[in-house]
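Recap from last week: sequence in, structure out.
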Amino acid sequence: MMENKANSPRPPANARDGSDSPTIKDNKHNVDADSVVESTLSQGSPKVVVVQGSAVEDKGEIGEDMVDENKDDSKNKEETENKDEPESKSELENVDLPKNRDEGDGHEGVDDSPQHGDAIMEVVEYSLDKAFKEIDRFLSTEHGEDSTVLALPDFLDKFLDRLEVMLNKYTSESEAGKVKWGANADEDSLFLESVHRLSRIAETLDPSKLVEESGASINRMESVRLHAMSFLEDEFRLSLNECKHVESDTADNEEKTQSESGDTADNEVDSQGFPPNVVSSMKSVADELMFGGFETECCLVYIIGRKNYFDELLSRLGFEILSIDKVQKMQWEAMEREIPKWVRMYGDCAKVHFLLELQFVESVFASHKPIAHRLFDNLTHIVLIHVLNFVEAVSMISKRSAEKVFKFLDVYEALRETLPAIDELFKDFEETHDIKTEITIAKSRIGEAILLMFSDLENSIKSDTSKNIVPGGAVHPLTRYTMNYLEYACEYKATLEHIFKEHVKIERADSDNRSEYNHRPPLPKQSSSQEAQSTFLAQLLRVMELLDSNIEAKSKLYKDIPLCSIFMMNNGRYILQKVKGSSGIKELIGEVWIRKKSSDLRQYHQNYKRETWGKVLGCFMDEGLTVNGKVVKPELKERFKSFNALFGEIHRTQSSWVVNDEQIQSELRVSISSVIVPAYRSFLGRFSQVFTAGRQTEKYVKYQPEDLENYIDELFDGNAGKRKS
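Predicted structure tokens:
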């Protein structure tokens, strides 16, 4: 990584291209302040400003004496370098040494000369406090355009030596003496401060104003700085990777942890799941990377690390990221299992995890709010692309059916309910990917699919033209299916109302195909205000109108007219009870519709009684039974025979008929008994003595009044021939 940084397109100001700039090649040159001065003097005697520490000294015109003096110093330096190595180096054995600059970066050689030993001792004794003061004094000096040629400050090499010692402690491959980042906050802080000052020096120095011989030192300075930045980048990445599992566990148990602890301030992790000291350290590292010109690398590390975290999070929440093609190839049963997982996952992300992520990124990049917001926007956009791809794939399934609409409604509700939370997340953002628009588009596609499925319900009702009758006039399966569907749909009435209002202009393919049911009497009209309030109500009434028309058409398949009334009564009663039992439907439809339906049921009841028992009651009429006050016995016998035959046939037939609703069943039986039994008892009391007691009475008087009550109580049980009559 160090090699890549050395080739970075963002060199500091002191390494920019220029004809007068020193060329940065490698670190194989060791140029200190004295050699810079000596080299400069050998070229002539211009006026030179020599930077010693932070003091800028005006040497004036340099004469031959000073040149000779520097030459003597150079000669003494050569003699010193040829001295033998000291016998003992015990004092230096435990000191982390910077790499020998004569060997360059990555070389193992160490200069064992006495001069180098002195240099090492100087590094150890050269405190960072002193270095910081000298750097600050240097940085506070103005280096304007009119300044004369500058030499590098003589403290720079000593400072670089000190910084390399610190860096080697962090990056050493040997465990002995190695310092782990984060183990000592004070050492980390000193290192970051040192890197920060080095970046400031690099930013301040202009290579065009430095003597040519400064190139090696500038090269070394840049190499050390890039090495430090590379290290910080790695530590930033490791911090993200090591903390993400803590965050995942904390997010799941946040509520539980808070309830158990009673005081979130005492928890070991903050609201994002990271230890506060780690967040603070990551902020410091991010700040330094940003200041040092590594904004792109820092942001890329963050995006990749958090993208990996969200991939793991989605998987842990039970959602597998699949392509649109793979989702569309899934069987409905498998997709049906995936949709609830998606709904839970999306709700958690939009309402919890995205908020935690925003808080986290704003903590790490607290000094760079626009960058924090850009990172958050990009990250959430990447995550939502995968999440919303599932929605798009689901909305495009080719095999639609009305039963699938409820899973689609769950998806629609999840998208709709999270929009306020998404708005809140991005309310302070200047620029975004317009994530709300992406969600709205996905919601619209699901809404259109729901409308098409609801139209499928209408089509299924109209297309149910089966000629098969339901035995006993029981509730038709179409009635059960439709009313159960509507009852369940009304649990989503607010959502459906929203969908129908949003998509009211979408044309249905079957919108004009209503002629076959035009014979139905119109339903009670809703007020204009009610119609304006509920588009879904109009759709609901439309479906129920289609159902009534279909059921009435099916009732005509029964050849027995009373059974036709029983069939209409059963289905009407089932519809009415479903409406009354569903607060959603009842609230939408209102009392007017309920009263109208109840009136229809009473009419079916009366029609049944008239068609079934009218002929029976005709047997009890006195007309034609007497002539001149005397009973016409043959006619009386015929009357009893007719009654016996009619009642027996009714009992035999209608015992197999079905009335599903117990209340209606009981009301029918009571209604029949209250009319038939008293009429028969009166008729029997008036004419039974006409027959000769014995065989004649038994032949014609087949039922006693009590027998009629028992037989009537067996009607509508759905069991034919329960008692032989």
